[in-house]
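Minutes, methods subgroup
Present: GH (chair), OT, SY

1. OT presented the first of two proteins processed in the latest run. Sequence and structure tokens recorded below as shown on screen.
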Amino acid sequence: MELQGVLPAVRKMKDFEVLLKNDEQSLIILLETRIAQLPQLVHYAKKRGKRVLVHADLINGLKVDQYGMEFLVRQIKVDGIVSTRASVIALAKKNGIVAIQRLFAIDSSAVTKNIALITKSKPDYIEVLPGIIPSVISEIAEETKIPVIAGGLIKTEEEIASAMQSGAVAVTTSRRSLW
């Protein structure tokens, strides 16, 4: 699956409903949901022809181990996951779904440690947060040779353009106005 452009990330049911009706968006990233809601959300999204990525670390009630991943892949039928944990990335890759490793660029030490971790886990994509630091996006894209997605604190079209010019292939945002 090739990810590019603006990728909508959903926290609220109202936003989910808006995205279901939006024919321009073929992908939904689900954030902060409960395990009991997940089957229905993914079912409705798939029924509308959407691909679904879930932030595995933010699904309340789900333990993302071998069995949790099996549940996501075989029962829920997600198209991919987002996680900060290398073990979850490895499980996603083993199960043949898109694996996005989330990296928090809080300081240069964290970036260096995360790059070392990413070279081992080899995710399909890296999501860099906050996505408003062009130099960090460039650095991570150049050092890892893995496509970078910018996310977090992106509020304007100018910030989207800046992230893309810095080497991001896509931008995630929960701001409806930017979808």
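2. SY then presented the second protein from the same run.
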Amino acid sequence: MSNGVSPSTNPVSGGDIRDSLIIGLDVPSVEEARTIVTRIGDAGTFYKIGYQLAYAGGFEFARELIGQGKKIFLDLKLHDIGNTVEEGVRSIARMGVTFLTVHAYPQTMRAAVTGKAGSNLKILAVTVLTSYDDNDLVEAGYAPVSAAELVARRAGQAREIGIDGIVCAATEAERVRAIVGPDSFIVTPGIRPSGSEAGDQKRIVTPGDAIRNGATHLVVARPIVKAADPRAAAEAIVKEMGDATA
């Protein structure tokens, strides 16, 4: 299986629907992550590894999963001086992961684009974290800019710089799609199936709504990895995504 993903305006109907669900392995150990992947089986093809697992052996586990034909979204949200980001991205590109996140600051995005040159790695820019709302931005000194306005501004900059895709809340996906055009990835975390708890996410929608809003990929962690039956939970979300494109 190729580690590349071809973006389109309707990625679910254009390919394997399972590839549009990214399962977040937000667990503290490789052993627990491996157990989850085994339980999910072929219902899951794409996995996210973030801080918690990455710094607990997750980089080697990513290589293991890639060797099994799985796709990997390495969610590191890089942001540093340009040279550091560029060289870090260049090293990550050699791992064979599919997606890598950086924060959507222009200098950081330009460095990431340079660092991934010649590889199949796709860079995703994180606009505004889904755990933030307008009050959080006021506290951080962004007032009077709202979360929606900041997302739009950063999405436009990402498009101009040549970033492959955007990470944003699904509530902003439709607006972002109008900014970045039809060929960019839009990856939305903060997804909660109907009836599940919001947790620490403040800007959330259901899987079906996210797809209808223009998302190409959905990141789902707790509703799957904490489920009594992770495979069944993943299959239910995939079905909801498919129903949204019917």
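Chair's summary of item 2: The chain has one domain: 11-245.
Next meeting: continue with the remaining queue.
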